[in-house]
Write a structure and sequence with these properties.
alpha/beta; 2-enoyl-CoA Hydratase, Chain A, domain 1; 3-stranded parallel beta sheet; 10 helices; 7 strands
Length: 219
Amino acid sequence: MRGALDRASIRLMVNMLREVSDDPELAAVVLSSTDPSALCAGADVNEVLDEEGGISRMSEFAALYAALESCPAVTICAMVGNTVGAGAELAAACDLRVAGDNLKLRWVGGLLGVPVGPARLTPLVGLAKARYLILQSPVVSAEDALALNLTFEIVPAAECHDRAVEIATSLASRPVPNLRKVKGLFREFEETERRTLKENRVLLDFQRHGHGLPSAPGR
């Protein structure tokens, strides 16, 4: 699956975000992919996990969402191709998003009954549109994302990463403490930490006591 995240990949991303967040001179972080056909296809449901492994995976996803939300630097997502499920969540968690012209953005949690999405998406697009995107789960093209204010720029997919880096470089030319302070105001006013932590608790309860994310057979 294109860009699907297994547990090792999730842990690597969490550790990297925590490491770079400790750098007080860091202005921006780019979330991107080496494959312009996909940013992230969500959880790797082909990964063989037992019940405890499934709970641990969800806990790691929660840690990833929290680490991205708490990053003091400006986060920029290069959304290309399949940006689905957890990929859509990561994109929505970023401060800025650049869309590749091949974007296929989709919130699929609602199809599986996974209680995820409202914490990050609703502040971006409003309640009615967030409900539609999560409950109906349409595929959102680059043009759709532009109309929904999920991005303010569409570029050829092969150029999306470079454009995100260009934006990050521009931000880095500014006084970093001031930049981070402005970012912090958005976090405070929108209460993104509270929203993310609340949804994370619901997600973990869903994995422990509900149907949970699917796992590959043969465990």
